[in-house]
Amino acid sequence: MTFQIIPSIDLINGAVVRLTQGDYQKQTNYPADPEQLIHEWYNHGLRRIHIVDLDGAKEGVVSPLHFNFITKICKQHDQLQIQIGGGIRSQEQAKRYFQAGVSFIVIGTLLQSNPILASELVNNFPNQVFLGFDCKGEFLAVKGWTQQTNISLETLVAQYETQPSAGIIFTDITKDGMGQGTNITSITKLCKMTSKSVIASGGIGSITDINTLQNLRITNLNGVIIGKALHDSSVTIEQIKSSNHAAH
């Protein structure tokens, strides 16, 4: 499997935003229209996008506004793979997203609040559900990262290793939005713990940070999600295209 750079959009009330270290009080608003942004990325050849429903993540229910937006995008671009996280806390919510045309969903809070339902989702939708390991230090944080748990990476991996998830999206919350690089130590440790595909997230500030991950040459480190650095133009679409092409 190759290494893929996946652009990200975080949404609050239909607007593109970024939170620093997952803090809803540290919100940066971007003037870009999310629909135009996705069209632009698609026209540049990018075929996979990560979307976070931050309202859903915080409130525990998918935002109808964001659901309708994502449904519209799926209809406009049937070649586009969309992975969506935030507020997916039931079989019905997951099913509606897949029926709308979403390729992958991401679950995080459920891993702690309802592990039985989390396992049911993973098994009912094999290879379509990513496990969102959003961590402060080595412990899972949930509910839009507003609550820290005592559940460790080791416990999470052991619990879901034999189940048919699409893989793991690992975010070090302390790095997220800081633009100072990812947590290489934790990412490397996680990749050794699991046989699942791992996608890194949080902390990318330049193309050098992306190259550092690629140069680790870890077999099951298969991608990185980039948000703030792309919106701030610290990393360009052309750089992403070039790196994605080189990785193939």
Descriptive notes:
This protein has 11 helices and 12 strands. With 248 residues, the protein is an alpha/beta fold. The chain is globular. The protein starts with a strand and ends with a helix. The mean pLDDT is 90.
Mind sketching the topology for me?
Layout: E1 4-12, E2 15-20, E3 23-29, H1 34-43, E4 48-53, H2 54-59, H3 64-76, E5 81-85, H4 91-100, E6 104-107, H5 109-113, H6 115-124, E7 129-136, E8 139-142, E9 147-152, H7 153-160, E10 167-172, H8 184-193, E11 198-201, H9 207-214, E12 221-226, H10 228-231, H11 237-247
Parallel strand pairs: 1-4, 1-12, 4-5, 5-6, 6-7, 7-10, 10-11, 11-12
Antiparallel strand pairs: 1-2, 2-3, 7-8, 8-9
How much is the radius of gyration in Å? 16 Å
Mean pLDDT level: 90
How much helical structure, as a percent, in the residues?
A: 25-40%
Structural class: alpha/beta
Helix run count: 11
Task: Report the order of strands and helices.
Answer: EEEHEHHEHEHHEEEHEHEHEHH
Q: β content, as a range?
A: 25-35%
Count of distinct strands: 12
Overall 3D shape: globular
Please give the order of strands in the largest beta sheet. Answer: 1-4-5-6-7-10-11-12
Largest sheet: 8 strands, parallel, barrel
- Low-pLDDT residue intervals, each spanning 5 or more residues: none
Distance between the termini: 9 Å
